[in-house]
Amino acid sequence: MLFPFVIAMLYGAAVYGLTFFAQYRMQAAVDTAVSTALYVDRSENQASNIGTAVSQRANTALAGLVAQLPESLRDNLNTASACGLETIAGGVEVLRCSLVYPNYQTNPIVPVLSFGMLGDFPPLPAQLDVDARAAF
Question: What is the mean pLDDT of residues 89-116?
Fold first, then answer.
C-alpha cells in the first residue's frame, strides 16, 4: 500500500536533483564567464573602452561555456544579450551575465508524471534563471 508513495518520493527526488543540478551548471557557467571577463588587460584598452572589452570577453566566455553544457539543457537556454553592463546606485558599472531556461514547467529535462485531475507530479518551477554580477 505504501509502495506508490515510496516510488513517488524517489521519482520526485530524482527530478528535483536533476533540476537543481541543471541550475547549478547554469550558475557555474555565468560565474565563470563573469570571473573570466574581469581579467581584461586594462593597459591595452583605453578607459572608455574597458566596459566594451569586458562585455565582449564575458559574452565570448559564456558562449564557450554554454556550448559545453548538455544538449538537453543548452538547446533550451535563452542566451540573447546574456552579458551586459549595468549602472547601479552611485554610478558604479557592473557586469551582469544571466541565463534563462524559459518554460521549464512545460519543457523540463526529466518528464513529469501527470495524474489527470490531481495535476502533475512533482511540481516544477516555471523557469530556471541564474545571474552573476561583478563591479569592475
Answer: 89
Residue 82 CB neighbours (<10 A): 21
Closest by CA position to 125, among listed 96, 99, 91, 102: 102
Q: Which three cell numbers stand for residue 18?
A: 536533476
For the stretch 8-43, pLDDT in tens is 899 999 999 999 999 999 999 999 999 999 888 777
Domain residue ranges of the chain, discontinuous segments joined by +:
3-135
* Alpha-carbon separation of residue 21 from 12, 17, 89, 92, 129 (angstroms): 14, 6, 33, 33, 13
Task: Output the DSSP codes for 57-90.
Answer: HHHHHHHHHHHTS-HHHHTT-B-TT-EEEEEETT
* CA dist., res. 23 & res. 83, Å (int): 18
Residue with cell 528535483: 16
